[in-house]
Design a protein that fits this description.
heterodimer, A: alpha/beta, Rossmann fold, six-stranded mixed sheet, four-stranded antiparallel sheet, globular, B: mainly alpha, MetI-like fold, 2 domains, 12 helices, 0% strand, binds adenosine-5'-triphosphate, binds magnesium ion
């Protein structure tokens, strides 16, 4: 575990619109360790999605820099990005969806990569559905397919933007377990944004709490739970509610500040 | 893929039967209505309640049709009109689609051309008739140009709005996987807009007939539109009615054709 796997250094970002300048982030500093699962929580509109866009390279910071293993992040470093909705392409079969990234990188004929795609489909129970269209799958399966689509490209960092919020509660708990186990098996480094404090605690090694705009990181809460096997189990840990209260208060304070 | 087995409950079978009889009665009623109209028309004109000179009549219409078929002139006129319509349809659709892609590609171009497109869309194209005749000459090229003018603007506008309505998250996803603009266009924007493209095809079938017939009213020496105008001028209502009937049938056939295409696309 290296301490400076991914690092945000004094990152600020402003959006410019006709109405004016919106200062979304102000001097954000934090490090992500390899194989760590970090959640970002904060008041709505505080700039969580913006942080992910910066790390994915979709946005450039107004000042400061994003470093990967000490070097400036560039296109050669694959970052996986998952959104609230699975964004599967309805006109492609599951298999075709999963290899979309390979097609874009001109690796659609690369034997090793295709084998990896097939293996992931097999390992995570979607192989029988590879010739189905997304509309024929349940919400949880679709989300799993979307996850495999990003994993096929072997991302160095996986970004999740409220990936479970479109699911109903029961499904959500199951899909969380599902995704958590896949991420652990594939040894992914994850930065996840969520509104759901329970989800954040049950999935993460650390939870970063943002203030309202212009956002800074208020606190980073390390999570140490008694049970660690799966998010569902972790929710049953005795320390769970203490963490929940802490984080809830922090966010509440942040919201009241304005 | 899991397909549902056909193993219905009695209640469901009853429901299906009901649906089927419902469909049959609808079709019977439609046929009945058609026959009544034709019979009534024939009767009233035979009894001279309606003057067949102004109203023509089914029997006179069919006689005209048979005469034209036996002399072969009908197929000549149909051929010319069909050729104009299909050519206009294909060129307009392709051109409109291509312009829409260009406008999607360049936001700057889109902004610059916006007022021009609005005006072009609002302008009644028939007003350009005389200009077209002078520029491309009277005859088939003028008719096809008219047809293209009528279809192309609406094609461009519909396709452009379909391209632009593509989900922002999907574009971000493509970019996060390293897609360039070409890849975003060909792997996301175009396939995503396929259903809208089929709707545009359907609209254009109707529009291209309008364009062609309008063009033929203006300049032609042959074609169904020409027959209708000519028939009107010399008061041969039989000819006017017969040509209109043929036109209806042709438009129907072309519409069915696109319908089949649509089913194929939707299946995916
Ligand atoms: N493209 C943009 N142009 C202008 N302002 C923007 C843009 N994107 C976001 N913003 C503004 O920046 C702020 C932060 O947005 P961001 O989407 O990062 O917040 P968020 O924490 O993800 O919010 P939510 O909890 O609603 O998902 C918001 O106030 C938003 O209005
Ligand atoms: Mg957000």
């Amino acid at each position: 575990m290296s301490d400076d796997y991914l690092q945000l250094k004094d990152v600020s970002l402003s959006y410019h619109t006709k109405e004016g300048e919106i200062k979304a982030l102000k001097n954000i500093n934090f490090c992500v360790k390899q194989n760590e699962y970090i959640s970002i929580v904060g008041p709505s509109g505080c700039g969580k999605t913006t942080i992910l866009s910066l790390i994915s390279g979709l946005l450039k910071p107004s000042s400061g820099e994003v470093l990967f293993e000490g070097k400036k992040l560039d296109k050669s470093i694959q970052i996986g990005y998952m959104f609230q909705r699975d964004n599967l392409f309805e006109w492609r079969t599951i298999y075709k969806n999963v290899i979309l990234g390979l097609e874009l990188k001109g690796m659609a004929k690369d034997k090793q990569s295709l084998e990896r795609a097939n293996n992931l489909l097999k390992k995570y129970g979607l192989y029988d559905f590879k010739d189905c269209y997304p509309s024929e799958l349940s919400g949880g399966m679709r989300q799993r397919a979307a996850l495999i689509r990003t994993l096929v490209l072997k991302p160095k960092v996986l970004l999740l933007d409220e990936p479970f919020s479109a699911l109903d509660y029961q499904t959500k708990l199951n899909v969380c377990d599902d995704v958590h186990s896949i991420i652990t098996k594939e040894k992914q480094t994850v930065i996840a944004v969520t509104h759901d404090i329970g989800e954040a605690i049950s999935m993460s090694d650390r939870v970063a709490i943002l203030s309202s705009r212009p956002s800074i990181i208020k606190t980073v809460q390390e999570i140490h739970l008694q049970h660690i096997d799966s998010p569902l189990k972790r929710r049953e840990s005795p320390e769970f509610s203490k963490y929940f209260d802490n984080i809830w208060k922090e966010i509440d304070n942040a919201e009241k500040k304005d | 893929m899991q397909r549902k087995k056909i193993d219905y409950s009695n209640e469901h079978i009853k429901y299906l039967k009901l649906k089927k009889t419902d469909k049959i009665t609808t079709i019977l009623a439609q046929i009945f209505l058609l026959i009544t109209i034709i019979a009534l028309w024939e009767l009233l004109t035979q009894l001279k309640v309606l003057d067949p000179f102004f109203w023509s009549s089914p029997s006179r219409m069919f006689k005209t049709l048979f005469d034209m078929i036996s002399s072969g002139s009908l197929f000549e006129h149909i051929g010319i009109t069909m050729a104009e319509t299909i050519l206009g349809f294909i060129i307009a659709t392709a051109l409109g689609y291509f312009i829409a892609v260009l406008l999607w590609w360049s936001e700057k171009l889109r902004k610059i051309l916006d007022p021009y497109i609005v005006v072009l869309n609002a302008l009644p194209k028939i007003a350009l008739g005389p200009i077209i005749i002078i520029w491309v000459g009277a005859g088939m090229p003028a008719i096809i140009t008219m047809c293209i003018l009528i279809c192309v603007v609406i094609t461009t506008l519909s396709m452009l709005s379909a391209f632009l309505s593509c989900d922002k998250d999907k574009i971000a996803l493509m970019r996060s996987m390293g897609a360039n603009k070409f890849q975003i266009l060909f792997k996301l924007i175009l396939p995503n807009a396929l259903p809208e493209f089929v709707s545009v095809l359907k609209i254009n079938v109707g529009m291209s007939w309008v364009g062609t017939i309008m063009g033929e009213y203006l300049v032609s020496k042959a074609g169904l539109g020409y027959l209708i105008v000519y028939g009107g001028q010399v008061f041969k209502l039989d000819l006017v009615m017969a040509s209109t009937l043929v036109l209806c049938l042709l438009a129907c056939v072309m519409y069915l054709f696109v319908g089949i295409l649509e089913k194929k696309v939707r299946k995916k």
